[in-house]
Write a structure and sequence with these properties.
The chain has a domain of about 130 residues: Aspartate Aminotransferase, domain 1 (Alpha-Beta Complex). The protein has 13 helices and 15 strands. The strands form 4 sheets. The chain has a 7-stranded mixed β-sheet, sandwiched between helices. Strand 5, helix 6 and strand 6 form a beta-alpha-beta unit. Helix 2 packs parallel to helix 8, helix 3 packs parallel to helix 4 and helix 8 crosses helix 13. The radius of gyration is 22 Å and the shape is globular.
Length: about 400
């Protein structure tokens, strides 16, 4: 039995998206910047996909969608595209649980003399709106807060945070890569200035994403060249991938209501099956949470007793045919604790033990039940005498 439970890492492209990609690759391979019929057909395909992606996030102006190579480029374009408008260093605010696609550009700006504030989060990984309001300065030019945290699943109060920024005239960006296609998105109701998307997180192909840019705003492009994508992103567009992204976005919008409820039921079922485990405790906010997402770490005493890491559990479940992920990172031979869990106040030992199980279109109730049983058996085998205190 093979059970894939790592849908937050990537999703299998749906057949409709694959069929679209194949047809465009073989039949509509023109350069969309060309003026002849081949180019015009390709350009029309891109604009259709732009409208499909815009509809997914309720953007009323399709031209507000800028196609990129993925969520990472979209995040970088948002942060660096704003920053490069200023000749002197300014102030940027992010959260302490951002994806590296935001955290690393922020570090680069610090090297250039910018001031960067990392907002703290509570034990559930949530930013307090009052902390954002207090952190804003006269020279704050951008705030970027992730919508759905990929490792612990916590949803941030984006509309409230964006309103605080709007009241102070500060631009607001959110990375919604984990949210798009899983929860309703309306960029105009959220009040965000920019929002990042990724095709392969919603059953489209890898290698394509998008940045929503509120009409009337300006950025400095990261790439110099032919001025494609309304001059925001130079380079000949990947027409087949963009078209398939559009198909996946349209189908995600059609199926959203039913699929969200189904995923939430699977999520809550797994939490329930493991609720009495003497080994594991959930991480993240259990109420304000991505619908497809569960995450856990070891209890403090079990972590001390076993010195087990999340990567150990990933390997053990992989041997049983179950694909999950861990939040810890290995650099230079040393296993580093999860930055998100340490920011949430977990000890380094427990922050090395985090695991994530995320679900998708092909996940069944039987998959959840089997995984819960296998995970508990693995823990019982590796930790024969668990200590059930210190949760």
């Amino acid at each position: 039995m093979q059970i894939y439970l790592d849908y937050s890492a990537t999703t299998p492209p749906r057949p409709e998206a694959i069929a679209c990609w194949q047809e465009i690759s073989s039949q509509q391979w023109g350069n969309p910047s060309s003026l002849h019929a081949w180019g015009e057909r390709a350009a029309t395909i891109i604009e259709a996909a732009r409208s499909q992606v815009a509809a997914l996030i309720r953007a009323s102006v399709p031209d507000s969608i800028i196609f990129t190579s993925g969520g990472t480029e979209a995040d970088n374009l948002a942060v660096m595209g704003v920053a490069r408008q200023f000749r002197s260093p300014q102030h940027l605010i992010i959260s302490s649980v951002e994806h590296s696609a935001i955290a690393e550009p922020a570090k680069l700006l610090e090297q250039w003399g910018w001031e960067v504030t990392e907002l703290p989060v509570n034990r559930c990984g949530r930013v307090e709106p009052a902390d954002l309001a207090a952190a804003l300065r006269e020279n704050t030019v951008l705030v970027s807060i992730v919508y759905g945290q990929s490792e612990v699943g916590t949803l941030q109060p984006i509309a409230e945070l964006a309103q605080i920024c709007r009241d102070r005239g500060v631009l607001f960006h959110t990375d919604a890569v984990q949210v798009a296609g899983r929860l309703p998105l309306n960029v105009e109701q959220l009040g965000v200035d920019m929002l990042s998307l990724s095709s392969h997180k919603l059953y489209g192909p890898q290698g394509v994403g998008a940045l929503y840019l509120r009409p009337g705003l300006s950025l400095v492009p990261l790439l110099a060249g032919g001025g494609q994508e309304g001059r925001w992103r130079s380079g000949t567009q990947a027409v087949p991938a963009i078209a398939a992204f559009g198909v996946a976005a349209e189908l995600a919008a059609e199926e959203l209501a039913a699929e969200t409820q189904r995923l939430m039921a699977l999520r809550d079922r797994l939490f329930g099956l493991l609720a009495d485990s003497p080994y594991l405790v959930p991480t993240g906010d259990l109420a304000e949470r991505l619908p497809h997402h569960t995450s856990f770490c070891l209890t403090e005493d079990v972590a001390k007793l076993s010195n087990m890491t999340g990567r150990t559990l990933v390997r053990q479940l992989n041997l049983a045919g179950i694909g999950i992920s861990s939040g810890s990172a290995c650099q230079s031979g040393k296993l580093n604790p999860s930055l998100a869990l340490t920011a949430m106040g977990y000890s380094e030992l427990r922050a090395r033990s985090g695991i994530r199980l995320t679900f998708g279109r092909e996940t069944t109730v039987a998959d959840i039940d089997w995984t819960a049983m296998v995970l508990q058996q693995v823990l019982q085998r590796l930790i024969p005498e668990p200590v059930a205190i210190g949760r």
